[in-house]
Amino acid sequence: MQRNRGLVIDALLKSEEPSIRWKVRTRVLGEDPHSRKVRDLQEEIRNSPRAKALLAGRNQKFVQEKHVYAKWRGAHWTLVALAEIGYPATDESLLPMRDQVLEVWLSSAFYLEFESKSSVPESRSAEGVPKIQGRYRRCGSQQGNALFAITRLGLADNRSDGLVERLMHWQWQDGGWNCDRRPSARISSFNESMLPMLGLAVHAQRAGDGAAREAALKASEFFLCRRLFKRRTDGTVINPHWLRPKYPRYWHYDILGGLVAMAEMGLIKDPRCADALDLIERKELPVGGWAAEGRFYKVSSSMDIKTRFGSISPVDWGGIGSRRMNEWITADALTVLAAAGRL
Fold first, then answer.
1. Residue 62 pLDDT > 90, yes or no?
2. What is the mean pLDDT of residues 249-272?
3. What gap in Å lies between CA 256 and CA 248, rounded to an integer?
């Protein structure tokens, strides 16, 4: 396997996707992300067919205005994808999208709240964020993902602090977030907690915000005390779907995404990550690399009314198949193994 990994890395360094080469060079091989060669590579990413496809259609009314969360091509998801693929920071052409996203996720509805003793239907969203049994029921993945993308793309301003404040305000005592509006929900959601944790972590690094860093670390304990995928009570797998890596993950959680988050935060060598790392190593293909075991999108370049609200991606992310290497999954797997000292 070790020999195969070397061959796989060599193959990825020759990928047609500049983003794959960027991921391997900066995250696996540890090249200086601010070096001239890497910055030149990011310019290649800016002009790549993938980046252009992600940014296409910005003049479409539904993309440009209120549907920032249209899956997966609204302004929210476009910024997230660009942050993921290594698009260069401080591109002023992205500012209108940033402003659209901030306007939505910092709207007045998120500053209103009400208490309830029973389940709250989604139809009452206009009343604000419900608080049930002392816990705010809010999809932290939305503000968290926006904070992560805006910060990573060098577009953060003082309004980004509003996202930080809201996330910390809604954080549950166990460290995470949850939008389940039933009183029976007493534990944070993995899906809703990973992205706020990452958003707070990258913000804290940029701004030197100690309180945000503490909030991110508190969230990390929610994952680590469950070894990223196991119940605390009996050690059984919480959700079998988390064992099947996919890319992009969008707002979904899986163990590879959890490990990438831990690597991002410098926590990947915590012994509680070992079980998840072992599982990822066991998933390595005999010929090398890792497969995408499912996906959350369909590919279409159409922007018509029939597809605009579906889970449509304007680009393909490498396909799926249990025996077929996916470059994006492989780059992430190599990233976490390198960070953990297992490469």
1. no
2. 98
3. 11
CA–CA separation, 320 and 297 (whole Å):
11
C-alpha distances out from residue 170 to 104, 113, 136, 160, 323, Å? 17, 11, 5, 16, 42
- Number of Cβ within 10 Å of residue 112's Cβ equals 12
pLDDT value of position 153: 98
Q: Decide: helix, strand or coil at residue 19.
A: helix
3-class SS at 205? helix
Closest C-alpha to 173, from 148, 153, 193: 193
Q: How far is CA 175 from CA 21, 56, 222, in A?
A: 35, 38, 6
For 244, other C-beta atoms within 10 Å of its C-beta total 16
DSSP 267: -
Which letter, b or e, does each residue of 57-76 get, where b requires 16 or more Cβ atoms within 10 Å of its Cβ? Answer: beeeebbbeebbebbbbbbb
In tens, the pLDDT along 177-231 reads 999 999 999 999 999 999 999 999 999 999 999 999 999 999 999 999 999 999 9
Distance CA 44, CA 40 (A): 6
> What is the Cα–Cα distance from 228 to 253, expressed in whole angstroms?
10
Read off the pLDDT of residues 159-170 as tens digits, 9 standing for 90 and up.
Answer: 999 999 999 999
Name the token pair of 271: 């012994």
Edge-to-edge strand order for the sheet containing 113-116?
Answer: 113-116, 129-132, 135-136
Tell me the C-alpha distance between 253 and 163, whole Å.
21
Read off the pLDDT of residues 265-276 as tens digits, 9 standing for 90 and up.
999 999 999 999
Continuous segment of H or E residues that includes residue 116: strand 113-116
Please name which of 201, 124, 119, 207 lies closest in space to residue 167, comparing C-alpha atoms: 201
Strands 298-299 and 135-136: unpaired
Checking if the pLDDT of 101 tops 50, the result is yes
- Distant-in-sequence contacts of 40-46, Cβ < 8 A, 24+ apart: 41/86, 42/86, 42/87, 42/88, 43/88, 44/18, 45/18, 45/19, 45/85, 45/86, 45/87, 45/88, 46/87, 46/88, 46/91
